[in-house]
UniProtKB/TrEMBL annotation:
Transmembrane segments: 40-61, 73-94, 106-125, 161-187
Superkingdom to which the source organism belongs: Bacteria
Name of the protein: Uncharacterized protein
Keyword Membrane on entry: yes
Protein keywords: Membrane, Transmembrane, Transmembrane helix
Organism: Frisingicoccus caecimuris
Length: 318
């Protein structure tokens, strides 16, 4: 049974009519009230937050890290795990804890520690590398010879560098809190469990309805089982007769071919004579067992005498 089928009914492999509208009321019952409650919207928001964090971390590590692209990717991935993946898990685990589905706080505490370490590392890196972001003051000086030279003077930390540092420290915190809050609001384990139980109840009701229909059919025809047994017995007897007729036909065919073989003086010898006689005797015994009647029993001594005379005549002719 398909939950997204547009048909009203369908036939299963057993020929039973199945109701395809059974889950439609449940889908309407658990339908999202707002677009933000849809299952795809929270994932899009979380991906957006992770993308923003990725650009922020790239601007940091591209200045302080080595030129290796692999090292740069590993550093960014590590910070994305601490600032985006772990907060989502924190929101999910805290929602489970609030709804009473779990009482284990150890995992939640460890996730908070990992997230705190990521925040601390980001702050430390931003503060220690603020000089790399601050532009150096350059003054042009003209010498007496007429050539222009540049003289670099240190004038402290530029306000732009301070602003960028604060931005680099604050944006990951905002996106992490947003991902955690969204996962906490949108994830509803009790609602999911309730929906699954409702579907299981509908399945059980449908099974009960089908069993009641089967019982009603049996009650409507009390001798239905006896009729089935009689039909099965009749079909069994018919199949037995058919197989017996097939075996008898094959045996008759083999007997006729053996007779033709024995009647041809050029196609047998002393060795094949005994083999053919044994085969004919075996066929007669099998036919007698299949027929089960004395009228079909063959006189083996007369048949052996007939075949012996036929073989002698064949040898004399040869």
């Amino acid at each position: 049974m398909s939950k997204k089928s547009n048909n009203i009914w369908s036939l299963n492999s057993k020929g039973e009519i199945m109701n395809e509208c059974m889950y439609r009321n449940n889908r309407k019952r658990f339908k999202a009230d707002t677009p933000f409650d849809n299952s795809i919207v929270p994932y899009l928001i979380m991906i957006f937050c992770a993308t923003v964090d990725g650009f922020v971390f790239y601007s940091l590590f591209s200045k302080i890290s080595y030129d290796s692209p692999m090292m740069l990717g590993v550093q960014i991935a590590g910070f994305l795990f601490g600032f985006d993946v772990v907060p989502i898990f924190i929101g999910i685990q805290y929602k489970r804890l609030r709804q009473g589905l779990t009482k284990d706080k150890f995992i939640l505490v460890m996730a908070l520690i990992v997230c705190g370490l990521a925040f601390s590392m980001n702050i430390a890196l931003r503060v220690t590398t603020i000089d790399l972001i601050s532009p150096s003051a350059v003054r042009t000086v003209t010498s007496y010879i007429g050539t222009a030279t540049q003289e670099t003077t240190e004038s402290g930390i530029d306000p732009t560098a301070i602003a960028l540092t604060i931005f680099g420290m604050g944006i990951p915190v905002v996106t992490s809190l947003g991902s955690c809050l969204i996962s906490f609001i949108t994830y509803n384990p009790l609602g999911i469990k309730k929906q699954r139980l409702a579907e299981m109840i509908e399945d059980t009701r449908d099974e009960v309805r089908r069993f009641d229909a089967i019982i009603d059919d049996y009650d409507a025809e009390p001798d239905f089982a006896e009729q089935l047994e009689a039909e099965d017995e009749a079909k069994y007897e018919e199949m037995k007769k058919m197989h017996r007729a097939m075996v008898v036909g094959y045996c008759d065919y083999v007997r006729e071919r053996l007779k033709e073989h024995l009647g041809n003086p050029t196609s047998n010898n002393v060795l094949s004579e005994e083999i053919c006689e044994n085969i004919l005797a075996r066929l007669d015994k099998e036919l007698a067992c299949l027929d089960g009647q004395t009228s079909h029993t063959v006189d083996m001594s007369g048949r052996d005498t007939k075949y012996t005379m036929m073989l002698r005549g064949n040898r004399a002719t040869a």
